[in-house]
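Folding follows sequence. Below is one example:
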Amino acid sequence: MDEQGEPAAPPRWLDADERRAWLKLAAVVTLLPAALDSQLQRDADLTLTGYMVLAMLSESSHGRLRMSEVAARTNSSAPRVSHVVRKLEERGWVRREADPADGRGQFAVLTAEGRDKIDGTAPGHVEAVRRLVFDALEDEDVAALEQLGGRVLTRLDPHSRFTASAD
């Protein structure tokens, strides 16, 4: 019975094709971040989330973003971003600044050392992404991946809170 006392609908089980696709997707979303994190840890002593924070700051105007925007652009929670930014601060790659327009808000700001770190790390990371993902795909696969990813992200994040556009 459901919440209204009506008979519950039977489960909508996955068919064989859907199950195979789901298991492959589940493996990719587990293995890919781990592989990228391992490459970054090994080559740059940096986590994937740390790299993403530095990258998003480096792509922003003046190398600064509100902490909430860093969270959105890295698809991370506010507490997770705060922890990562603290670690990056300890290494001298990022600093926090109070938002003068809003005393409660803070900006994460990329330092010169942080810019050097992301500039030195990006080529190896992009090569890993290319090797692990794009070298296995044809041009039409890349277009299909973008389209399919967009459809699923629309379901997961209908208000685009955590999936800032890369455009």
